[in-house]
Specification:
By secondary structure, the protein is of the alpha/beta class. It is 26% helix and 22% strand. The protein contains twelve helices and 17 strands. The strands form five sheets. The protein has a six-stranded parallel β-sheet with strand order 6-14-7-8-10-9. It has a four-stranded parallel β-sheet with strand order 3-2-1-4, covered by helices on one side. The two termini are 31 Å apart.
Length: 378
């Protein structure tokens, strides 16, 4: 069934056994996944003398998160595809889209035709909050939402946007700020999906709450992304509560990178312009964790608990101080990280969402071990 589903060129290549190529020509590799990691790895293999590298991608088009995960108003981040095109145009490289390894072609089948197989499949699922109400209508992962407004073929958010006034984003990394900008900026002249832009324009979002369980010093977003939201026209940026700095935080702030970011946060905190002066507002909540999402069928509110940080600098952890508060909201986005899923034919650790490996070499498959290159951050 596989060979009938693939072009004649693919059949010819897949039927070519490794022993048909002499050692002088160099080894032949399969790279599964054509995102940034897949292309950078392919480039390295070619420089190391590979005779051929076959890139397999389960979607019709390459580039992974560069295509489906970059914010539409950051086109400069997509310029890396110029280099990827150069790699793909090398005569030793073949690209096969719409081929799902583990389903269309078994891992065992690949092992019969390549000297090495590298898996650069990234993370295609989501970490969960593990709280009540997580499955209510109106709760989405950042992966789903970002994929939706970037026209990812596997995502479709069907929601009535007209009555939306408030959204809460759990997690305070760069992706959280990307989502906030979608609702507060003019994306008319970007490469955002036209259908997504049309629906978002129908919404009446006025308030975006970004919630982080740790303190401001430990926030994951970069200074550049933080500055961007402070420059959105007619949009206020507010810090909810006090900007708490512990003794351990002071040690962490000796880092120049963290010091620059905290300087921006401090200026936000000291700006006393009332939110009512703006048509839209972004609220930053630090030291807060979600307890439960409330609602009958759809999201109505989210309950949060306040935290404090304890421990040594750069390894602080959070603990609850048993104080709670609630935010009425229409949408909740989970931006707490992605998780890999198992490829049929490979060992997998369900708890960590990773392929068991020893310094990159897959373990648990007997004598014929495969190579593994998988990065859940790509």
């Amino acid at each position: 069934n596989l060979l009938r589903a693939i072009s004649k060129k693919r059949i010819r290549i897949l039927r070519t056994s490794r022993w048909c190529h002499s050692d002088k020509q160099g080894p032949i590799y399969a790279v599964v996944g054509s995102g940034p990691a897949g292309f950078y790895l392919t480039d390295s293999l070619l420089k190391l003398g590979a005779a051929r590298v076959d890139l397999f991608e389960r979607y019709p088009t390459p580039y992974g998160l560069v295509r489906y995960g970059v914010a539409p108003d950051h086109p400069e981040m997509k310029q890396v595809t110029n280099r990827f095109e150069e790699i793909a145009n090398d005569d030793r490289v073949n690209f096969y889209g719409n081929v799902n390894i583990g389903r269309n072609i078994s891992v065992q089948k690949l092992r019969q035709h390549y000297h090495g197989i590298m898996f650069c499949t990234g993370a295609d699922s989501d970490r969960i909050l593990g709280i009540s109400g997580e499955n209510l209508k109106g709760v989405y992962s950042s992966r789903e939402f970002v994929g939706w407004y970037n026209d990812h073929p596997d995502t479709n958010i069907d929601f009535d946007w007209k009555d939306i006034n408030t959204a809460v984003i759990i997690g305070n990394g760069n992706v959280a700020l990307d989502i906030a900008r979608v609702f507060t900026s003019d994306y008319q002249n970007t490469d955002i999906s036209e259908s997504a832009l049309h629906k978002i324009k129908k919404s009446n979002v006025k308030n975006i709450h970004i919630v982080g369980r740790r303190g401001a010093v430990q926030s994951s977003f970069t200074t550049k992304e933080l500055r961007e939201i402070t420059k959105i026209p007619n949009c206020g940026v507010n810090i909810v509560g006090d900007l708490i700095v512990s003794e351990a935080d002071k040690e962490e702030l000796k880092s120049r990178v963290l010091k620059r970011k905290f300087k921006v946060l401090d200026s936000i905190y000291n700006d006393k312009t009332p939110p009512e002066k703006y048509s839209k507002n972004i609220f930053l909540h630090f030291l807060s964790s979600p307890v439960q999402i409330k609602g009958k069928e759809s999201v109505e509110s989210i309950e949060l608990e306040r935290n404090e940080t304890i421990g040594e600098p750069f390894s602080q952890k959070c603990r609850s101080i048993n104080k709670f508060y609630e935010i009425p909201t229409d949408l909740v986005f989970k931006s707490i990280g992605y998780k890999s899923t198992q490829i049929e034919g490979l060992p997998f650790n369900d708890k960590s969402g990773t392929i068991p490996n020893d310094h990159g070499r897959i373990t648990g498959n007997g004598k014929n071990k495969l190579c593994r290159n998988i990065d859940s951050r790509v």
